Amino acid sequence: MKSRKNADFSDKVAVLAVSGGVDSMTMLHKVEAGAFGDFDFVVAHFNHGIREDTDDDEKLVTTYCQNHQLRFERRKQSLGQNASEALARKRRYEFLNYVAKKYHGEIWTAHHQDDLIETMAINLIRGTGWRGLAVFDNHIKRPLIFMTKNDIYQYAKHNQLVWRNDSTNADLKYLRNRVRKKMAQLPDVKRKKLVTLWQNQVLIKREIDDILSKLIKKDVVYARDFYEKLDDTTAIEVLRALSKMHGQPLTIPQSADLLQAIRTYQPHKKFNLPNDKFVIFSKSRFSML
What we know:
This protein is 47% helix and 12% strand. Helix 4 (113-125) packs across helix 6, helix 4 crosses helix 7 and helix 9 packs across helix 10. The longest helix has 28 residues, at 188-215. It contains ten helices and eight strands.
């Protein structure tokens, strides 16, 4: 494995999610060139088997890694052409998390500015809350996030990279592809405003999460009257953080239902949580079991 130390972007082993498309091949090339600092990395390729030509994608990445003497991990599954985007993403990240655990590393993906704006638009279409605009704020590293798709194409052509196009990117049965077609006409000035909005929302989210982490503590029981005094929006945010702390993360609608239960349920009544867990109430308190 190519070894580079004293990374600017990460002190851990970078697990590069490389599909063989222009985005991930650009990321891999830039990492090899030391564009993000010097560190260890491993290439990870997931062959989902949705398209007939996914073996060709795997062959491209495999050959590249062999020619460049890069450490390489791969997994193949036959999900079939009717597999959903959600299933493919779930299986892909299961694999990437496995590789990250194996190498004590962190996942790097080739998401770029167009992906960012498309994801925000999709969340708005689906009726997101404010957190839906603070996307991509998690443990995954995205070194190309401020590059546009056009920037990536220009870089790949300039460096004579070889990549494969995913034919499903043109299939309009997928919501993301329909959104992508619309967003392609977005003027640069509006793109910049959306990126600035995203940056601000991420900062707000982190500030709120920091406040919540100091406000709530993992305990056995909690007072019901605390939530009775809060306004609905604040109470729901606190409950989302509380449920996440207990390993039972709730959506906004689920948190709203729990809030209603806290305010109205009689003693000894139970509120169901995911994974066969529940909240049990006394007259003045509740516990998450």
